[in-house]
Design brief:
Two copies of one chain form a homodimer. The first copy, chain A, has 190 residues and is mainly alpha-helical. Helix content of chain A is 77%, strand content 0%. Chain A has helices at 5-23, 30-37, 41-47, 51-75, 80-96, 102-108, 115-141, 151-172, 174-188. The structure holds a DNA duplex (30 and 30 nucleotides).
DNA sequence: TATAATACTTACTTACTAATAAGTAAAAAA
DNA sequence: TTTTTTACTTATTAGTAAGTAAGTATTATA
């Protein structure tokens, strides 16, 4: 008696998302996924014929997730600094999950990725950067945030701090990430 | 007629270093290396019995390289801002080689790395961060550089900008890295 | 000149990878 | 109630991975 297909497919996706962020695209296999679900290797192929299909779906779910976050932030009345903190918190949480951000993960494996996925990754990355830049620009206009660079550049600075900060935390510990987080929030306040 | 062993070993090391930075630890094989040198797979195993041995030697060469850079910078009379630029230039160069920095590479693959290597990676990372922090602290003491954070934190901020900037350049192009580079140099001047 | 070490090649093993074909039981649709 | 679809399992394939054992030239040493 097989479980509802959509459940299994969602679980595959969820496990694959975690593995991608934990060990990267080239270091997880269909077997890693199937073992966690107590199903066979071929069952994963039933839902995702190729690993490329699976990766594409993972990236697409992140695009959807970030679109939702974007519209959530756009309608939110949170102070701009708290919106930035939302991002910082998300990255801090990755450390506890022994993960890095997907963009960092796929960037590291970029030249081994299927071509079709690269375009979706580019879309995802610009979505995230654009969203952060918007938050920053609005915050500056409202007199809530202070920075000298153009908004895109400041978004690049902050997101690279966070993304590499999470990677670095694997090596030197979470304390370094917290120093980064504290510093970049402080910078925006003056 | 086999070539001088040390030559082959050095070439293996050099190719492996490049592959590590290009595709990561899990995405290159002994076959990738042997093909480039027109030797057999087993010849690589002769010089490096296991992939762990090879990775350990790679990390150790980077430790040596950075120790040399450290003493070079310590004795240099270059303005502090130019010393920072040395780092930025190194990272910019990685983009042209389709590479990312080793620390970023091994951080992404950290949980799939052999245990013995992790300690050397920690050493390497703290070496680099310490060196940058030293340059920054000296520069501030001399009135050449300006920043509000403690030197370690500012080193973290700059190195995460550079490391993730190089990764991001794979996705969105080198222009974003140049924005980052320009901004962080400008920040240090006022 | 004999011996030993060096730097390989040939040939192989074990283990895993993504992927597929064919079969099966349960559920849904006709 | 029959048929079809769904969601798998079983079994297999072709390819590649790291790693090894045994053999072979070449070079260095005694």
């Amino acid at each position: 008696m097989p479980a509802k297909s959509t459940d299994t497919k969602q679980e595959i996706l969820s496990i694959a998302r975690d593995l991608l962020k934990k060990v990267g695209y080239n270091a997880f296999s269909y077997s890693d996924i199937s073992k966690q679900l107590n199903i066979k290797n071929a069952a994963v192929h039933y839902h995702y014929p190729t690993k490329e299909d699976l990766l594409a779906d993972i990236v697409n779910t992140y695009i959807e997730d970030y679109k939702q976050l974007e519209s959530g932030l756009a309608h939110s009345t949170l102070p701009a600094i708290d919106k930035v903190s939302v991002f910082a918190d998300r990255y801090a949480h990755l450390i506890d999950l022994q993960s890095i951000c997907i963009i960092g993960s796929v960037a590291s494996d970029f030249y081994t990725l299927p071509e079709a996925v690269k375009d979706r990754v580019i879309l995802l990355t610009n979505l995230v950067l654009g969203m952060v830049a918007n938050v920053l620009e609005k915050g500056r206009t409202n007199g809530e945030l202070f920075f000298a660079e153009d908004a895109r550049t400041k978004a690049l600075l902050i997101m690279t701090n966070l993304a590499a900060g999470v990677q670095l935390a694997r090596i030197t510990g979470k304390k370094d990430f917290e120093s980064i987080r504290t510093a970049l929030i402080a910078q925006l306040k003056k």
